[in-house]
Amino acid sequence: LGALRHARCRAIIGFGSYASFSACAAAIVLRIPLFLHEQNAVLGRANEALHRFARYVITSVPNVEGIERVPPAKVIEAGYPIRSKIADLAATPYPAPQPNGPLDILCIGGSQGAQVFGQIVPAAIGKLDDAERARLKLTLQVTPPQVDDVRTKLAMMNVAAVVSPFFSDIPMRLAQTQLMIARSGMSTVAEVLASGRPAIFVPLPHGHRLEQYKNPAAAVAAGGAWLCDQKDFTADWLAGRLRAILNGETDLAAVAAVARKFGKPQAAQAVAEVVTSNI
Fold first, then answer.
1. Using an 8 Å Cβ cutoff, are 184 and 203 in contact?
2. What is the pTM for the complete model shown?
3. Are 244 and 218 in contact (CB under 8 A)?
4. What is residue 208's predicted lDDT score, i.e. its pLDDT?
5. What is the Cα–Cα distance from 51 to 67, expressed in whole angstroms?
6. Which of helix, strand or coil describes residue 128?
């Protein structure tokens, strides 16, 4: 309450989760115009509790589970705001892999979701033959305890790889990426689709109403990405997928073109316009 009084805010926009709840509640008490943004394909608990006090509920995707609780006139789809350096990739061509050329893979899982990638990705690469492994260029996020072991395994297989628990230059790496392997939080999904990159999404197998399964659902159904349940994300499954790509059986450029149709690189501007035109 004190912070909002001091800031003399003209509007408050809450982006969900427990971190937004107290500021949004203070805005209601102070009668500051409140807007909510629902990032996921499932209405979260904070926004579910607050929506009756909001002028508008802005969504990332058209069909949000639970949004029927909100009067339709208060719902506006505008997309999920992404970093400008990644939004700029929407205007650049997808760097399609060439026959018998390298395949640039970016694999990130966030602080909580990277461990399974550190286990499965090296094991899958180990099932490829030498010629297939020689074509891979891998950027792999793992947990800190996994770094040394994963680096050693990939070096023994002569795989060109950068392994780290954190990357601060994702926009640059995504610009050269030809295949993404990632969790499917909405920020990741929005950036992958806006940049038009084919992706294998492995949802975190928990969360409020399993939103990570639903965030990329439209793109997956249209053929713009793959979704693999974590229990099915095995070394054999991933090796088969990589082998099909390396052998030209899967057209990554076609998958990328479909993914790009679902991207909303101008979402930040669209969200801002909803707020500024309604206060």
1. yes
2. 0.94
3. no
4. 62
5. 10
6. coil
